[in-house]
Amino acid sequence: MASNVSSNDKSSMVSTKIVIAGGFGAGKTTLVGSVSEIPPVTTEAMMTEASEAHDDTSSTPTKITTTVAMDFGRITLDEKLIMYMFGTPGQARFWFMWDDIVRGAVGAVVVVDVRRLADSFAAVDYFENNPQVPYIVALNRFDGELGHTVDEIREALEIRPGIPIIDFDARDRRSAGSALTTLLEYALSHPTKEPALAG
């Protein structure tokens, strides 16, 4: 999926913006990094005692950094389409940035850590309450097992019928790329009538 675009072709290319959202430590930064054809721009900062007091790190004991603004990456899907990926911060104290990050996006991937479903409520709720932004839910397989059926997860997170729920591995380039393709296909089949969160 690397870019092999000549300067003559660039004028005919279309670019699009998607959002990678989810709870703390769900795999958003990993997803962006695994598929981006450029070194991803991240705003990772060392976790502090203040963040550890608010974020459950029991399932991610080796996590020592967290996104404090956003992640950014780029992927060329074919000779005519470039996708820009914007990853949201997962911690609650940074949610005020979400509207600005989501504005203008054609859709979003909500990454869910199935070991900590409760951490995904806020992200799912955000897009359920902003139906002008098509979204899919991507269940990140950390240990190779989902532990729940898709129907159980849909019910637990109160995801409305028709929203695609897929499982993937954010660490794997092919698997992460497939999640992005699923989002684009869904967004194209569910066009919005107005720009996402138009200001």
UniProtKB/TrEMBL annotation:
Alphabetical list of Pfam families matching this protein: ATP_bind_1
Transmembrane segments: none
InterPro entries registered for this protein in UniProt: Gliding_Motility_GTPase (IPR052705), Gpn (IPR004130), P-loop_NTPase (IPR027417)
Keywords of this entry: GTP-binding, Hydrolase, Nucleotide-binding
Molecular function via GO: GTP binding; hydrolase activity
Organism domain of life: Bacteria
Alphabetized CDD domains for the sequence: Ras_like_GTPase
The family this protein is said to belong to: Belongs to the GPN-loop GTPase family.
Protein name, as recorded: Signal recognition particle receptor subunit beta
Phylogenetic lineage: Bacteria, Bacillati, Actinomycetota, Actinomycetes, Streptosporangiales
